[in-house]
Amino acid sequence: MLEGEFDDAVDQVAPYLDALYETYLEAMYQEGANSMFARVVECQSKAGKGEQVGNKLKNDVLPILQKQPGFIDFLSLSDKTNPERMVCISFWTSREDADRYHQHHYDTINDALRPILESPPMLGTFAVDVSTAHRIAADRAA
């Protein structure tokens, strides 16, 4: 396929994919539907272990998350003023999906990270009200 033909094919498919995604979001946020859900985990690695924690998250935790029903996305944030501090955010289609992950995998992951963490991670859970990355508008969010 020539480059121009590929671009034309993408241009033809893109509106369909956008419409499909919008339909999915509308269904997800109909009255009574569960809203997108986020889990926020903050952790402090032991001195000099920040990079090791980051590698474990990327190489061990992310593949587990990607196999979970309802998993949407994962962000790992590092603090540039304190390289041992990290905040991780995972996005889920529902609280139930996040809870199922927590019940089946969180303790195993926590145990694997425990030797390189200064203290136990702090976990917070949130409903996602607005996200430009996930195309959630404030007026559609639950």
Explain what the structure shows:
The protein is built from 3 helices and 4 strands. With 142 residues, the chain is α+β, with helices and mostly antiparallel strands. It has 2 domains: 1-33; 34-142, Alpha-Beta Plaits. A 4-stranded antiparallel sheet has the order 2-3-1-4. It is globular, with a radius of gyration of 18 Å. The mean pLDDT is 81.
Give a concise summary.
The chain is α+β, with helices and mostly antiparallel strands and 142 residues long. It has helices at residues 3-28, 50-66, 95-113, and strands spanning 37-44, 71-78, 85-92, 122-127.
Task: Tag the structure with descriptive keywords.
142 residues; four-stranded antiparallel beta sheet; single chain; globular; Alpha-Beta Plaits; alpha+beta
